[in-house]
Specification:
By secondary structure, the protein is of the alpha/beta class. The protein has 13 helices and 20 strands. It has a single domain, classed as L-arginine/glycine Amidinotransferase, Chain A (5-stranded Propeller), CATH 3.75.10.10.
């Protein structure tokens, strides 16, 4: 009884603390986060030159993204220091990229995934911009006081100051890849992510902050993401023979941009696992259960005007296993992590199999183009090629007026995210 009363008291105190924000959000919020499919002034790209596993260099991935985007939008390349700026400049110049459409932003950071900690641009009815400044705790793996978390959390405020834009702050912990908005007031969130980041917040307080910061007025709560996007230190995954163990190469912990996206104000794209695929193993079976649970929610959901959503399904990629040796950076990321929640102790001193964060939903929508992910290369199973083709067909259906450019993204996926995670649009 005492424990229950204590919990009630905690929730009550939190609601009182958040009450000014809630009232502000309910009264009038001048700011909104535009839909990604609205026109962009620029795209910000986090460019780190990494080789998390030998043979998987990230520079070609980022170069391909720039090539796809540069004809229709200006690009702000974000680099951690001057030497990286010169390195990237040489790559772009060698490829005859028009440098008058490229600018650089230099600031210390340690992750590609600028969408999660970089500037979140919002607009008012007059077209004026502001930056929504969320708190950050390294995707729930550390406290928000960790030095790396503090270093990257302040980037959005620094950019706001240098750009002459107002910065609006919240202590709510939330990453850009964890939210999907249609630009009209509807937001999709994942319970497994948002409450993992903010375990002591009531749903009402969390929603009130999303209203205040992003203009969200209508909420659709999905349950979980895909199994490979569960916390990387939660458990191991079955190996290719279903007996050996594999490890997540990284994960953002149930980010929505890995499995469900707004492609228009009234249309969502949702990942799918067929019954036939679900019979292949426990991961496929669990992914189907999760995605069908989310599908049931979306089928019964309405947008901000009370209209049902259109739903397009897109496959989940076939799993690719990549061997990481003790000399690889991806190996050390695991070695330095805490022991697994299921009791697994990471085997040091020998090679392991990693599962990258692969997704066909982690695409960027920009002016006249969609930059998507693909995986098949010569020598890989035919099923991977077939999945790539099926995903491309789904994207063409979702974006009939845009060009779809699919690029090989595995080197970036090895860090736990993808193309969408590594970019952030600045609305026109």
């Amino acid at each position: 009884m005492f424990e229950r009363l204590s919990k009630i008291c905690v929730v009550t105190v939190l609601l009182l603390l958040f009450q000014p924000w809630m009232l502000h959000g309910q009264a009038e919020n001048p700011w909104r986060f535009p839909g990604e499919f609205e026109r962009h002034e620029a795209v910000w790209i986090g460019w780190l030159s990494k080789e998390l596993v030998k043979g998987y260099k990230t520079d070609p991935v980022m170069l391909d993204a720039v090539k796809a985007l540069i004809p229709t939008v200006k690009i702000r390349v974000c680099v951690p220091d001057k030497s990286q700026k010169e390195h990237v400049r040489k790559i772009l110049t060698a490829e005859n990229i028009p440098m008058d459409r490229i600018s650089f932003y230099i600031t210390p950071f340690t992750s590609f995934y600028w969408r999660d900690f970089g500037p979140i641009f919002t607009k008012d009815k007059a077209g004026r911009k502001s930056i929504a400044d969320f708190n950050f705790n390294l995707w729930g793996y550390e406290a928000d006081t960790h030095p790396y978390a503090r270093m990257m959390e302040k980037i959005d405020r620094t950019i706001a100051k240098s750009s002459g834009l107002p910065s609006r702050m919240t202590r709510l912990i939330s990453e850009g890849g964890a939210r999907e908005l249609n630009g009209k007031g509807t937001i999709m969130l994942t319970e497994a992510c948002e409450f993992h980041r903010n375990p002591n917040l009531a749903r009402e307080a969390l929603e009130a902050e999303m209203t205040r910061m992003l203009g969200a007025t209508h909420f659709i709560w999905l349950k979980q993401g895909t199994v490979d996007d569960d916390p990387m230190n939660q458990s191991t995954l079955p190996g290719p023979d279903k007996k050996s163990r594999a490890y997540r190469s990284g994960s953002a912990n149930n980010h929505i941009d890995e499995f469900c996206r707004f492609v228009a104000p009234d249309t969502v794209l949702l990942a799918e696992v067929s019954e036939e695929e679900a019979a292949k193993g426990p991961v496929e079976k669990e992914n189907r259960r999760r995605m069908e649970e989310n599908y049931a929610i979306l089928k019964n959901a309405m947008d901000q005007d009370g209209n049902p959503l259109k739903i397009i399904r897109i496959p989940i990629p076939d799993t690719i296993y990549i061997e990481a040796k003790p000399t690889d950076e991806a190996y050390y990321i695991h070695k330095a992590s805490p022991n697994f929640q299921d009791g697994t102790v990471f085997p040091t001193g020998r090679a392991v199999l990693l599962v990258p964060a692969m997704s066909y939903c982690n695409f960027l929508i920009s002016n006249k183009v969609v930059v998507a992910q693909k995986y098949w290369k010569k020598g890989m199973p035919k099923s991977i090629k077939e999945k790539d083709e099926a995903a491309l067909a789904a994207l063409k259906k979702a974006f009939p007026t845009r060009k779809i450019v699919s690029i090989h993204s595995l080197p970036v996926n090895l860090g736990g995210g993808g193309i969408h995670c590594s970019t952030q649009q600045q609305p026109e």
